[in-house]
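Continuing from the previous page of notes. For each protein in this section, the sequence appears first, followed by its structure tokens. Read the first protein now.
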Amino acid sequence: MVDQNLKIVVWSVLLICSLVGEGYSQESDFSFRQGETLEEFGKRIIPKGMKLAHTVVRGNFGSTENNIVILFHENEGDDYIGWVLIPSGMTYKKFVLPATGFPIGNTVEAIFFANADSDTDRELLVLCTVNSGAGGAPFGEVFVYDWDGKQFKYLEDISDKLTIEQGEKRTVQEVRKRLKSLGY
């Protein structure tokens, strides 16, 4: 009798966990609907209650092509959450960008791709205007992400070298020029 009751409890817990998990699980493979634009696709797949932090971008970086970058947040000025969708057959596999360790509000100005490390592959760069929250003027920050074939890594050292002084902003062209001066 105890074994039967234990089985019932275990199966009940498993059923409840699977039902609760179903509502909160996030897909890892996505596909476009017929006639759907990049922007519509991005808005459809981000978690409910979130908004796009920047226009959805498609580009070639790392060792793959036609990657899709989706940055989103709950409120304007919140730090962004980033997904990169990498083609896998007829679908896209989702990879989450690592946290930058800079939890202060960002406004994403541009998403672009450039070589920013010692290999020949291009990296993903996110150019932001950052509000320090300390009463100072906003400043520019560039977050650099490298794809190693399995996951994205935040390249803090090169990101720090691309940081812009408080009160200054930088364009994509200026970031590219700075990368070139650093030997990339």
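Done with the first. The second protein uses the same format. Note its length before scrolling.
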Amino acid sequence: MSYIVPNSSRNEIKFVGDHSSLDSIFCWLQLNQYGFYKEFPDRKVNSIYFDSIDYSAFIDNLIGLSARSKLRIRWYGDFSEQVRFELKRKRNSFGWKIIENIDMNSEALTMNVLNLKNNIRNYLSDRNKYFIDIFSEPSLKVQYDRQYFISLDGNVRVTIDTNQSFTEMNSKLASKKILNDMFIVEFKFGKKAHHLASDIISTFPLRQSKNSKYVNGVYGYLK
């Protein structure tokens, strides 16, 4: 499947480290010449990912298909009135989202997994009903704590994700796996900021790494 990359798309470059190196990352953010500062308050991110019956989204991400999609429902904090449908698309290094707000409380998302897809579908536009009919199976719940930073000129964003946990959604005996010993740093920037971001990343103390929370979580409970 191929996608037309919108002008609003952005590059996303990831780094993975363990908690022994986390202090050095915060030190780098404070001392580098690009003036990174906190963009938003810290918050807990909650996502429920959907996949096809044959796990096509998982497989496409695992093999690194150049054009691929992931579908998730996302909210922030323990419970929230603001729930979002997000179809995350990627073409090579460029990523973008199709987003639709859902008029339902996030607490309702965890009450009845068997009817979760149909309950969400009732709130969606016709276009997004099509996507949730393709990725129809709730497969994984992912939670983590996120910190947000942005460069002084506003062109490069950095997020730091810690305390990840994964919960299987398609089993009667859902299991949770907590990965407290790793964190993920992600640089996000538009096409026009490519050279600036390259200069910034060249001084970053971790090595670039391919990473997908969805792949990590599904692979963890399929093993």
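What the second structure shows: The two ends are 28 Å apart (CA to CA). The chain has one domain: 10-222. We return to this in next week's lecture.
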